[in-house]
Amino acid sequence: DSGEAFGHRGNGFSYGWKCDVSASSMNRGAFNRNRSVFTALENTLVESDPFSRCVGQEWRIKLPPGRYHVEVTVQDPQSDSNASGILVQGENLGFPPVVGPPGIGVRRALFVDVIDY
To answer: Torsion angle of alpha carbons 40, 48, 93, 108, nearest 10°?
Structure first.
């Protein structure tokens, strides 16, 4: 993810953020970090709304109805990460307020039932 607003991605999926945050200097996908000991995915960083400019900021994906296993990982290879306020379908995932030290990720998972698009 690179912080773009919700829309079709040309890969068969529609997903994205309520408000586009791709212009933020921290949101250039894997190109913003180049720590060789981390994968391209681990080097990707998206700050969803660092200045609280988007009320109700959220990330969505369009999926057919069903039960899905959702994993969320908070990790930054260069800094501690603010993990407060992370919800999935309104459920707090119980992340600590700050995840660190740099390079150490914390993962949470749950099952989500999608009943409509």
So the answer is: 0
How do residues 94-104 score in pLDDT, each as one tens digit? 999 999 898 88
How far apart are the two ends of the chain, measured CA to CA in Å?
A: 20
pLDDT in tens, 30-39: 455 666 777 8
Cis bond before residue 101 (omega within 30° of 0):
yes
Q: Which residues contact 32 (CB under 8 A, 6 or more apart)?
A: 25, 26, 43, 44, 45
Give how far Cα 43 sits from Cα of 74, 89, 98, 105, 111, Å.
Answer: 12, 26, 18, 12, 26
